[in-house]
């Protein structure tokens, strides 16, 4: 009969102590011998006698300062001398000077902290009165509360520049290729954005190749959109750019230049704007190609289905500058309109100075303009009581401009700015002019009413006012043509028209949205530009309504656009409807299956010329990560009474995005495709990726192949364990986490979360300590007995550690197939043994391997 095992004695002892409290007047003590057959079978566990105790050492914890996440760090912990709460595990952190610097502590105000040596533990509670430290061992979260007077900068989100990461040396390449093979014409577009990072410097080039063939004529062109070098100037909180770039648009209109620019970087400051890019909306009557130009360069070219569309991922070449949108329909007709691209009123916090200095040659993508040398300087100052004062000047050989303005935060009434620009100009015919321009901007979010005035602006210019862009024209008037023949008539299409005798007079810009609660929302976007010398105006407006009920969404939109000097007015109204299949399966809002993620769609449109069309179809997402989108439609148009149809799919893959589509309308058939991705060359090799952003993160987890990155659709590590997380936020903490559920059986990671703070344009590295090997549950025997419970285990070659459990069982991960374990249960040579082991190769494919080993 086997001897009884006393594993459950702690429960019995606790019950006795409760029933007879007089037995517990002295310190409670549990005999470790009860854990096994005798004291010899248990290691020295004295450090755990007090209960709720953890072993001191180095732990990786999340640090929160005043309820704000600071980062994930390896922090040394010591045994607490006082009586901490049970959640702390009997530990207290060793908070060093480096940690306090990272948290933004003002050392000058606390002499005790100023004398700390590197690595020395700070007496935080006595040195900073009012500070508190709380540690939760279960969640590995360290909460540190510091009074605001102890901080160098009280702004929320402040990260000291010492923590900014300039990144690693790297070569970068972004590519985007789209093409169309049609019955009557072919067109291709390739955009390449290459770069080199070294230290704080970033060298960039942006170029595009375009090819078109129609009616026997071909056009083949390579455009160098820009080449420049830039770097951060941290002491000035500024950016330096040398080469091809664009000026800011705070005071003057943005223009391209080739030269140098030094300007304040808003993103280096806490709680500052991260930038703005407009959403380009429109209505396509048929499957169409959308081309967007800025400053004469094609910055976007893609394909959309019939109905309303919205392009939200636009990456303009400059921070401002109007966007010229062309929608090329399959029947040869075209829509053209301009989307204004400006920022909200110019407001700065009190005491903040923002400057922008530029010197260089004027540069545009238009061969009909000169390249005069000019200088520009602007300054914006934040004053007290919510006022902002700003101004600037532009100087060239044939142009002089001076601007002065002010802005005011009106509290509940929003924000407003007003400025006046005076300019002297000499035009292409050598005529001289002098005039003024008054600009008004207003922005307000009426949360109570659901109204958001994203931008409401008006500019009035006198007859003698001209801009630097106007002065650069070689001729007083003329048409500018695109390189492609959109209507297949053998003639190039008109892209724009200018007439300096019709200089700009009044311009209204509006971008308003109104929430209607459960009844949907309304939006109005548009602009209207009037001119001196003509009653015609350039107009673009879009009015829309969108709503939904029980997963069914619907929208109605109306657009109107007209350009001065170009015949024709486009007025289009469209209706869109989307019904989820889950409504019929009874799964309500669940989207677990591909069927429930499918939608029935319908759209219809009608133009002012009487052309109407309608389409019905099915769209949805496939694959486990829902990274494959598809759409199939069938429709009809009254223009010739032809039927039309389309099918498209877009796959967001690990190494890029791939899209393909097929369209037909009557006898016309078209096949289009889009391919984009990125490539990064670094010290450890070459890594392919999805399209890169301006700032990116290189993930290094050697050997951990096929591991997904949390919150990054389609991003996985390659066969070497590397991946790129694009579009990192500059000067802010970026959380990078590996999805441990996607790791293979032979992969483990010491910690799956890291955080980085990149500077602008950097490629920062987030490294993870991976263990590639076997997961094993080994039973170690010593002198025909299991090794003592609680003994410490270490693999002598790679340093993997663990602890012995019941019956000599040891769980280890990342083990090599052959190695040696060192097992210690006390001090001296008699309290340790070594256990060599060998595991079969099939262990690498198993979830866990069981084996008994001998320890001598």
Automatic annotation (TrEMBL):
Q: In the UniProt record, which is one GO cellular component term?
A: cell outer membrane
Please provide the record's keywords in A-Z order. Answer: Cell outer membrane, Membrane, Signal, Transmembrane, Transmembrane beta strand, Transport
The PapC N-terminal domain covers which part of the protein? 29-178
Enumerate the Gene Ontology biological process terms.
Answer: pilus assembly
Location (main, coarse): membrane
Q: State a single Pfam family of this protein.
A: PapC_C
Signal peptide segment: 1-26
* Membrane topology note: Multi-pass membrane protein
Per UniProt, residues of the PapC-like C-terminal domain are 777-841
Task: List, alphabetically, the InterPro entries matched.
Answer: Fimb_usher (IPR000015), FimD_plug_dom (IPR042186), PapC-like_C (IPR025949), PapC-like_C_sf (IPR043142), PapC_N (IPR025885), PapC_N_sf (IPR037224)
Any one GO molecular-function label of the UniProt entry = fimbrial usher porin activity
Q: Where in the cell is it found?
A: Cell outer membrane
Q: Which PANTHER family match?
A: OUTER MEMBRANE USHER PROTEIN (PTHR30451), OUTER MEMBRANE USHER PROTEIN SFMD (PTHR30451:SF6)
| Family statement drawn from the similarity comment of this UniProt entry | Belongs to the fimbrial export usher family.
The molecule here is called Fimbrial biogenesis usher protein
Annotated source species: Silvania confinis
């Amino acid at each position: 009969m086997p001897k009884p095992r006393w594993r459950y004695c702690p429960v019995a002892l606790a019950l006795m102590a409760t029933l007879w409290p007089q037995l517990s007047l002295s310190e409670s003590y549990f005999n470790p011998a009860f854990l096994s057959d005798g004291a010899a079978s248990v290691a020295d566990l004295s450090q755990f006698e007090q209960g709720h105790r953890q072993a001191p050492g180095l732990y990786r914890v999340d640090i929160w300062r005043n309820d704000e996440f600071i980062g994930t760090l390896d922090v040394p912990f010591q045994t607490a001398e006082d009586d901490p709460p049970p959640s702390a595990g009997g530990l207290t952190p060793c908070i060093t000077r480096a940690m306090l610097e990272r948290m933004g502590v003002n050392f000058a105000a606390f002499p005790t902290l100023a004398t700390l040596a590197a690595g020395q533990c700070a007496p935080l509670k006595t040195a900073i009165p009012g500070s508190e430290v709380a540690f939760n061992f279960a969640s590995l979260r360290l909460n540190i509360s510091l009074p605001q007077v102890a901080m160098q900068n009280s702004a929320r989100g402040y990260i000291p520049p010492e923590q900014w990461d300039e990144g690693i040396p790297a070569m970068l390449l972004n590519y985007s290729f789209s093409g169309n093979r049609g019955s009557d014409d072919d067109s291709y577009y390739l955009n390449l954005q290459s770069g080199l990072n070294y230290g704080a410097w970033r060298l960039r080039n942006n170029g595009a190749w375009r090819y078109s063939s129609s009616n026997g004529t071909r056009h083949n062109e390579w455009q160098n959109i820009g080449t420049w070098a830039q770097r951060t100037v941290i002491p000035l909180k500024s950016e330096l750019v040398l080469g091809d770039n664009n000026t800011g648009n705070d005071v003057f209109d943005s223009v391209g230049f080739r030269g140098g620019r030094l300007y304040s970087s808003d993103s280096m400051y806490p709680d500052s704007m991260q930038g703005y890019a407009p959403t380009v909306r429109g209505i396509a009557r048929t499957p169409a190609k959308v081309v967007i130009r800025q400053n004469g360069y094609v910055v976007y070219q893609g394909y959309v289905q019939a109905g309303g569309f919205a392009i939200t991922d636009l990456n303009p070449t400059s921070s401002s500058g109007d966007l010229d949108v062309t929608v090329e329909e399959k029947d040869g007709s075209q829509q053209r309109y301009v989307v204004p691209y400006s920022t909200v009123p110019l407001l700065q916090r009190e005491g903040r100075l923002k400057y922008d200095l530029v010197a260089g040659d004027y540069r545009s993508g238009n061969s009909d303009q000169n390249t005069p040398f000019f200088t520009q300087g602007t300054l914006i100052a934040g004053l007290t009581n919510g006022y902002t004062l700003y101004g600037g000047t532009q100087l060239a050989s044939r142009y002089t401009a001076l601007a002065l303005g002010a802005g005011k935060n009106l509290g509940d009434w929003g924000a407003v700015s007003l400025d006046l620009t005076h300019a002297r100009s000499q035009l292409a015919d050598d005529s001289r002019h002098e005039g003024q321009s008054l600009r008004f901007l207003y922005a307000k979010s009426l949360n109570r009413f659901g109204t958001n005035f994203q931008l409401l602006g008006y500019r009035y210019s006198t007859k003698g006012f001209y801009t630097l862009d106007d002065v650069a024209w070689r001729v007083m008037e003329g048409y500018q043509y695109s390189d492609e023949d959109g209507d297949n008539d053998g003639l190039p299409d008109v892209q724009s028209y200018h007439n300096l005798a019709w200089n700009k007079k009044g311009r209204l810009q509006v971008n308003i949205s109104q929430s209607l609660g459960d009844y949907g929302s309304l939006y109005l976007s548009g602009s209207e530009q009037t001119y001196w010398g003509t009653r015609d105006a350039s107009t673009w407006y879009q009015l829309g309504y969108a709503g939904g009920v029980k997963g069914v969404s619907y929208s109605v939109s109306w657009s109107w656009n007209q350009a001065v000097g170009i015949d024709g007015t486009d007025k289009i109204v469209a209706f869109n409807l989307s019904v989820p299949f889950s409504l019929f399966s009874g799964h309500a809002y669940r989207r677990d299956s591909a069927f429930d993620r499918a939608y029935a769609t319908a759209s219809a449109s009608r133009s002012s010329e009487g052309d109407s069309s309608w389409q019905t179809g099915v769209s949805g997402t496939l694959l486990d990560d829902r990274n494959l989108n598809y759409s199939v439609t069938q429709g009809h148009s009254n223009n010739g009474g032809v039927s039309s149809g389309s099918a498209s799919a877009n796959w967001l893959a690990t190494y890029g995005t791939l899209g393909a589509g097929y369209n037909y309308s009557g006898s016309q058939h078209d096949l289009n495709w889009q391919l984009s991705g990125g490539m990064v060359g670094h010290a450890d090799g070459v890594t392919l990726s999805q399209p890169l952003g301006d700032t990116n993160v290189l993930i290094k987890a050697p050997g951990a192949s096929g591991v997904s990155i949390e919150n990054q659709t389609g991003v996985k590590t390659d066969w070497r364990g590397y991946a790129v997380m694009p579009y990192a936020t500059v000067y802010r903490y970026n959380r990078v986490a590996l999805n441990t559920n996607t790791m293979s059986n032979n992969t483990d990671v010491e910690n799956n979360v890291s955080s980085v703070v990149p500077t602008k344009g950097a490629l920062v590295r987030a490294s993870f300590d991976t263990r590639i090997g076997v997961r094993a549950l080994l039973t170690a025997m010593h002198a025909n007995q299991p090794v003592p419970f609680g003994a410490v285990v270490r693999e002598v070659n790679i340093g993997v550690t663990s602890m012995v459990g019941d019956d000599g069982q040891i769980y280890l991960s990342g083990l090599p197939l052959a190695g040696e374990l060192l097992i210690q249960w006390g001090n001296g040579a008699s309290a340790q043994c070594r256990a060599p082991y060998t595991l079969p190769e099939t262990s690498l494919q198993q979830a866990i391997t069981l084996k008994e080993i001998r320890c001598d």
